[in-house]
Design brief:
The structure holds 2 protein chains of 2 kinds. By secondary structure, chain A is of the alpha/beta class. Helices cover 37% and strands 19% of the residues of chain A. Chain A contains 5 helices and 7 strands, in the order αβββαβαβαββα. By secondary structure, chain B is mostly helical. Chain B has 5 helices and no strands. The radius of gyration of chain B is 22 Å and the shape is elongated. The chains are: A alpha/beta, B mainly alpha. At the A-B interface, α4 of A face α3 and α4 of B.
């Protein structure tokens, strides 16, 4: 009896394991963020477009906002740009951008400015993370990454990979509605 | 049990315990091959440098998930090495540095997560497999030694 039952049980266990592990819809590189449910890391960085002004996310307390980490070196960010523009057109919540200077050079700022001038600017404010420190505070490892922050300044959702209309409607809008939108 | 089925069991047991042994030993003594540690130069204090190298080997580069930040040339790995270095110079403990990383990137950022009820299976599985395989080998071998020779 055991002789048959044991291999069969092992077989079933493997099928279950593979069904889960090899599921093509599961992105093995997408990791759950430990920030979910925690206060959004604060930052005060200079504005990409106007270097003399500061983008400080603590001034956004009391309203729901989207935070999008991108860079001009990031091809996938180019892919999602049109979607971000369309989302910004809806005026649901402000989109804050963090321009990630991956080589720590000042050149990224000029490229980012040019990018926004040529392609359009979906952001209400864009912060310039020249040192890549704010990005680490937010646990970012693969731009583009998009976060949703609620009125209490808590991170409630994170999405890795280019934003799409579908993701916006299915993942973001319901959460924004539940969070009671903005101020 | 016939000799042939015994031989099959024995083969299976050897494979199981072999996998267990390799992963147990590999997990404990793994040494990375390449290294990208020198990108920012050495720390002046050799003790700090040694701690730095040990910590950097312990942290996963999330861009290229099977490399440590000590091995990876990714830009993010370089920035995380900078972070570790700065925290060491500021007198932070190893635990504080690991906590900094897991607070931001989750437990996955550590190659050897601390032994907790949640990670007990990861740590225990190789030894459990080794034990299981060993037990099967032992029992089959004993049974065989008691058997009369066929021919």
């Amino acid at each position: 009896m055991w002789k048959f039952l044991l291999p069969f049980a092992a077989f079933v266990a493997l099928v279950v394991l593979f069904a889960f592990g090899l599921n093509p819809k599961r992105d093995i590189h997408a990791l759950p963020s430990p920030l979910i449910g925690k206060p959004a890391p604060e930052f005060a960085l200079s504005d990409v477009i106007d270097p003399s002004s500061v983008v400080n996310n603590s001034t956004l307390k009391g309203q729901v906002y989207v935070l999008n980490v991108w860079g001009t070196w990031c091809a996938e960010c180019r892919v999602e740009h049109e979607t971000l523009l369309a989302i910004a057109q809806q005026h649901v919540v402000p989109i804050i951008g963090i321009d990630w200077s991956i080589d720590h050079g000042p050149g990224e700022r000029d490229k980012a400015k040019l990018w926004l001038e040529r392609l359009g600017n979906p952001y209400s404010q864009v912060a310039f993370d020249r040192e890549g420190r704010t990005v680490i505070d937010w646990g970012v490892y693969a731009a583009p990454e998009t976060f949703l922050v609620d009125r209490d300044g808590k991170v409630i959702f994170k999405f890795i990979s280019p934003m799409t209309q579908e993701v916006w409607e299915k993942e973001f809008l319901p959460r924004i509605a539940a969070a009671g939108k903005g101020a | 049990m016939s000799r042939r089925s015994q031989a099959r069991w024995l083969a299976l047991a050897l494979v199981v315990s072999g996998v267990g042994a390799v992963s147990a030993v590999g997990g404990v003594f793994a040494e990375p091959v390449a290294t990208a540690l020198d990108a920012h130069g050495q720390l002046a204090d050799p003790a700090l440098q040694a701690r730095f190298e040990r910590i950097a080997k312990e942290l996963r580069c999330l861009v290229c998930q099977n490399e440590s930040i000590a091995d990876s040339n990714a830009d993010l790995a370089r920035d995380l090495r900078r972070q570790v270095r700065e925290m060491l110079v500021a007198g932070k403990s190893d635990d504080a540095i690991f906590a900094f990383m897991t607070d931001r990137y989750g437990e996955f950022v550590r190659f050897a997560p601390p032994l907790t009820p949640k990670t007990a299976l990861i740590w225990g599985a190789p030894f459990a497999m080794l034990l299981l395989g060993g037990t099967i080998v032992y029992r089959v071998a004993r049974q065989r030694s008691r058997m009369p020779l066929d021919e």
